[in-house]
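Hi Y.,

Following your request, here is the sequence exactly as I used it, all 386 residues.
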Amino acid sequence: MTGLTRLPLCLLCLSLTQQVFSQTFTGSNTLTGEDWPRHRGCSELRGITNAKIGDGLKLNWSFETGDFLKSSPVVSDGLVFIGSDSGSLHALSVNEGKEVWKFETTFGIEAPPLVLDGVVYFGSTDGFLYAVKARNGNVIWKYETGGEIMGAANQAIRPKSKDSVIVVGSYDNFVHCVNAKSGKLVWRFETQNYVNGVPTIYNNKSVVFGGCDSVLYIVGLEDGKLIRSVEVEAPIAASVSVADGIGYVGNMDRAVMAFDLETGNIVWNYRQKNFPYFSSPAVTPKFVFIGGRDKGLHCISRITGKQEWRFSARGRIDSSPVVAGEKVVFGSMDGKLYVISLDSGEEISSYEVGESISSTPAVLRDQILVGCEDGNVYSFSTSLLK
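Below is the corresponding structure, written out as tokens. Let me know if you'd prefer a different format.
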């Protein structure tokens, strides 16, 4: 692993911290609320939408996919796309929850889909990355990796070649970059263990990810060559969220860290109870939000890395939070979907489904969709106040 450096996990000097966070928070990829075509909302995986939601939660519809569901929904052009443990990718009408079509694979689908230009890209535990037409599920191509695909794919335009590519991690220890139109391999980068999370796109020039080898990688989007890597203390099960040159991620030990993507330096390290983080963070100009297996939703100052508040659920929180205006939305293994205040961490509303929710919500204008481990997809109206 050429270029690997071991860095002390501690706060840098105040002047560096101020310099890092003096940059303007860029929100150009924040969604408007009409669609949710990517897991975590955008290629930087910030988990933010401009969709306005109300204070209530009313069940609109539910759709049964089978016995178990870990995938997260995405929404595009009036259709909800979600994978199931039975091996099907389901396309549902967003207003009624009626199945429009489904596509069958040979094993379960835990990875959230990605929708782009009328094509749905998704990985399966059968080791294939698929591209199918969004309107009817007809297959366009499939690309074989050497292991299970557990995380969503991401998309970007390579800076020199200007071609659209799909980037995905696999349990074959590689991150794969393939041409979006043909499914042909462009490059692949080898790690030393499984890659669970979604590869994050930084500044349209780099791919950022961690894995079970306890290393954070930054590789070139154009050629897949290593730019730098940072050894951390524990495996990383989730994805890195990026804003203004800083990456934010939790690990399977007990830490949430912020690191400078240009230098690899650790900006801050947040530690509370000795529980792991399987949730991916949401990042706003002021705060970082992340769920923990300590049953808490943590709000962390983006500048100092200090805790602002902590919301206590009754079960661990593997679901990744989504920020919608002044509200934070997430599910818990206690069987509830929560809407809480961004500023105070106080509960605004919740809905008890009854079974564990590890899926990440898709948040639209006055509508929240989420998968549940009882095998159902649920759609809620938020009773938007006019």
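Confidence is low (pLDDT under 50) at residues 1-28.

Thanks again,
Q.
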